[in-house]
Design a protein that fits this description.
Blueprint lengths: L7 H17 L7 H9 L6 H16 L2 E7 L7 E9 L10 E8 L1 E9 L7 H25 L5 E6 L2 H8 L12 H11 L3 E5 L16 H10 L2 E4 L26 E7 L2 H7 L12
Parallel strand pairs: 2-5, 5-6
Antiparallel strand pairs: 1-7, 1-8, 2-3, 3-4
Length: 285
């Protein structure tokens, strides 16, 4: 190892596990942010970066099952809930921010976790960019459903007062004149009535999953809000089903039956994770 860089064998294993984790994150939002941070370093990973990969593997060994519940409802909810968040200048090497969020229609339809293209000069700017990303994803889903004869409204949830104020006004304002056209576009969409934006408590925002590292209880709580149940290696529930899904659309309360999709750990991730001790998670209290 030179200057802390991994040797060729370890580097290959690092990229292999990172790629496998990226494949899993399509339905495992609980590791999306950690995986994104690992892949950012895949060109020249260091020993410290390898520790992050091992932590993902230990977590997945302790929580190998993630079940998504699809509640049976009499009609499609009228509103698609879009939860968005960002971490301002969270990437220490580039000082770029991360946009994260989830689209929920009774249960999660899609989530995203991406580095923003440019450096944001304020936390408000980073949050507005996250709102733009969320609204783009929401409009895409809305148009797909419209083609199937289903018309829904969009509701954007942000925990940033600055982003809420910017999206609700017309024009950049005195303090945000440096923002680009995309941030002005979101104002026009909101004024057209195609979507609305509301404030959400930062501790209740499930989009935190995709922008920062969280504690055990926070991961379990946010995953349950998105319609997921986590189980440990002994197939015991970690408490998601016992928590109140306060943010899920009220239409889900009409559920008469459930269908579910079970995502289990396998392939390269399992063989690599077998090398490490299990870091078990206890049920949330």
């Amino acid at each position: 190892m030179k200057d802390g860089l991994l040797d060729k064998v370890a580097h290959t294993a690092y990229r292999s596990v990172g790629g496998s984790a990226q494949y899993v994150t399509d339905r495992r939002g609980d590791i999306s942010f950690a995986t994104k941070e690992v892949l950012r370093k895949s060109h020249a990973p260091t020993v410290q970066d390898e520790i992050k990969v091992k932590r993902i593997c230990r977590y997945l060994r302790g929580v190998p099952r993630c079940i998504q519940h699809f509640p049976w409802i009499s009609k499609v909810p009228e509103t698609l809930e879009l939860y968005v968040d960002s971490d301002w200048s969270g990437e220490e090497d580039t000082r770029k921010s991360t946009s994260g969020g989830a689209a929920v229609l009774g249960t999660e339809l899609k989530h995203w976790c991406n580095s923003q293209a440019s450096v944001s000069l304020s936390s408000g700017e980073a949050e507005v960019k996250a709102c733009v990303k969320g609204l783009i994803e929401g409009l895409y889903i809305k148009n797909m459903l419209k083609q199937q004869g289903v018309d829904i409204q969009l509701r954007l949830h942000t925990d940033s007062a600055a982003a809420l104020g910017h999206c609700s006004r017309l024009g950049p304002g005195k303090r945000m004149r440096h923002l680009e056209g995309a941030e002005i576009w979101i104002q026009q969409v909101l004024r057209s009535g195609a979507a609305s934006v509301v404030k959400i408590n930062g501790k209740e925002n499930p989009a935190d999953l995709f922008t920062k590292y969280l504690t055990r209880n926070e991961i379990i709580r946010h995953m349950s809000v998105l319609g997921f149940e986590l189980k440990d290696a002994d197939d015991d529930s970690l408490g998601c089903k016992d928590l109140e899904l306060s943010l899920v659309s009220a239409a889900a309360e009409e559920a008469e039956d459930d269908s579910e999709v079970d995502m289990q750990l396998g392939g390269v991730l399992r063989s690599y994770a077998d090398k490490f001790k299990v870091r078990r998670l206890k049920p949330a209290v």
